[in-house]
Amino acid sequence: RVRSSAASDVYKRQRFRVIASAALLGLVAAAFLLGTALTFGDVPSAQAADQQQATLINGLLRVGATRIYSDYWTCDRVAFVSQERIICGVLDNNLQPTHNRDPHAYGIVSADPHAAYVFTANSVQLQTLEQRLQASGTTGRYRRYVVEGYVVYEPG
């Protein structure tokens, strides 16, 4: 009887390990399936963002706006996707230079008197820019247009 009890304990432990291993494997498989489903679910929005970015870049290049000021993420994407045909200086919410990945980029942009400002339509930077232009009475010196949800102010 002692032997059968010991054998029973070994059998129970082995069975527990098999069940626990199967449960863990099932959990990992479920996590992979969920991740795959979420990734495929994000494809349409990623494609739309890529299209928006391409339209913005093509619009800027078409009007010759190759030196721009914008927010960090827009600058990063525009410079990268345009293969540096557009050079961008990063501005913070107060329109001060900040976090430029390329240390020379801001100097290049700020040296160009025709550098454009490119901000998303609802950004703090755009609100600050428009307030400053109105306060200084220089709004008329800029051409304003919208490209794919971005407002562009280009010196005229």
Describe this structure in words.
The chain has four helices and five strands. The chain is an alpha/beta fold. Strands 2-1-3-5-4 form a five-stranded mixed β-sheet. It starts with a helix and ends with a strand.
| Helix coverage percent | 55-70%
**Average pLDDT across residues?**
92
Following the backbone from N to C, one meets helices and strands in this order, namely HEHEHEHEE
Silhouette: elongated
Radius of gyration: 28 Å
Overall structural class, as computed from helix and strand content, comes to alpha/beta
Number of helices: 4
Query: How far is the N terminus from the C terminus?
Result: 98 Å
Largest sheet strand order? 2-1-3-5-4
Instruction: Tell me the fraction of residues in β-strands, as a range.
Output: 15-25%
Unreliable runs, pLDDT <50, ≥5 residues? none
Biggest sheet: strands, sense, closure? 5 strands, mixed
Keywords:
156 residues; alpha/beta; five-stranded mixed β-sheet; 16% strand; elongated
Helices and strands, with pairings:
Blueprint: H1 2-62, E1 67-70, H2 72-81, E2 87-90, H3 105-110, E3 116-120, H4 124-136, E4 142-147, E5 150-155
Parallel strand pairs: 1-2, 1-3
Antiparallel strand pairs: 3-5, 4-5
